[in-house]
Amino acid sequence: MTGTKSKISRRSVLKGAAALGGAAAGSGVITGFPTIWAQNIKDIVLRSTSTGTASANAIAAKAKEDLGITIQMTALDTDSVNNRIVTQPNSYELADIEYFSCKKIFPTGVLQPIDVNRVKSYDDIVSIFKDGKLTPDSKLAQGTAPHTVSYVTGQDSTEFAPSPTEWMTLIPTTYNADTLGIRPDLVGRPITNWSDIMDPAFKGRTAIVNIPSIGIMDAAMILESQGAITYGDKGNMTKEEIDKTAAFLIEAKRAGQFRALWKSFDESVNLMSSGEVVIQSMWSPAVAAVRSKGIPCVFQPLQEGYRAWGGGFGIASHLSGIELDAAYEYINWYLSGWVGAYLNREGYYSANMTSAKKFMTEDEWGFWVEGKPAQGDIVSPEGVKMEGPGAVRDGGSFEERMGNIACWNSVMDEDRHMVSKWNEFVAA
């Protein structure tokens, strides 16, 4: 079955299924396919390589239940994911990577452009991934904004397109606006700026993320907050700016400002839960994980704004035939609502907020997305109580958070030089 033939047959089948009422409303499950196709797709195994943000076992289990497709997830840190995608292209079918990684990965040809005509809810994908703006009045942020690497010029192209085409590099899955996490019971004062992490009062009780392309951005936010450097583009520093940033980090490390440099979600949670660290780079779900233990922790809004990131599914170049069909089915299911609601409850944001809303209660949507006080208990996807009545999400609404992005995670033109200087910092 060629990609073209499967595309035509799939569309004709969907048309017929819709006419017969074969699609289960709101379920995200597509039915009405020929019996042979339906039986065969249940035998499909798709290997997904991703960072921890997208590798929840519950998602794989639900996909198996709804589609019959087996999703085998391998979770690695960001750098290891990027390395595996490029050097072991036959070890996966789906690559869930961050958008800034596209600059490194997509030109190598290991991923195939994605036909937006096969993505059922393409029109409902959040506009940040299409034109870079949450609203028509939004300002474009610095760094590798997803829309700058979202599209390629054609079906067989590895050249990024300056505006939307019918061929995407990735189908967005999760994204967020990141800031500093704090222990309000231990910091002893209000935290309002990125530069607060360098307060001598917190010496030996701070931490930053040890992923070069991300950590360097946090450092830039700190230095601009201090007024020490004004970057032309924090997401694409000059060599001189990189050198100054690295020198600052090395000096701070040698002075004992940092308790740790963390690489994984769990490390950040453990550092904050134990009280070893009271202020650090942190991801929203990690803050939620600390709070679920009954420990005070805040994802702190800051005057300078947020550092944002986004991730999405890429499809391996070697995929074809019914396996390629299965990959598109999984992507369509992923955007159909259940996963989106799951991700929203984790503290991330769904790429299709319209469908996610259908799988959330009014109170959940109000708390997680609209910034409204909770009316009842707010629970995690696993059912663990996270907040009680009256609680308001840190940073407020979706629009307040994603509309206040200072910079996106990025790959710089001087990436090799940056990584080299970052490694000097880690070794100092």
TrEMBL record:
Q: What is this protein called?
A: Spermidine/putrescine transport system substrate-binding protein
UniProt keyword terms in alphabetical order: Membrane, Periplasm, Signal, Transmembrane, Transmembrane helix
Which PANTHER family does the UniProt record give? Answer: SPERMIDINE/PUTRESCINE-BINDING PERIPLASMIC PROTEIN (PTHR30222), SPERMIDINE_PUTRESCINE-BINDING PERIPLASMIC PROTEIN (PTHR30222:SF17)
Q: Which Pfam families match?
A: SBP_bac_8
Stretches that traverse the bilayer = 12-37
Coiled-coil segments on the chain, per record: none
PROSITE patterns listed in its UniProt record: TAT (PS51318)
By its UniProt entry, which InterPro entries does this protein fall under?
A: SBP, TAT_signal, TAT_signal_bac_arc
Taxonomic source organism = Martelella mangrovi
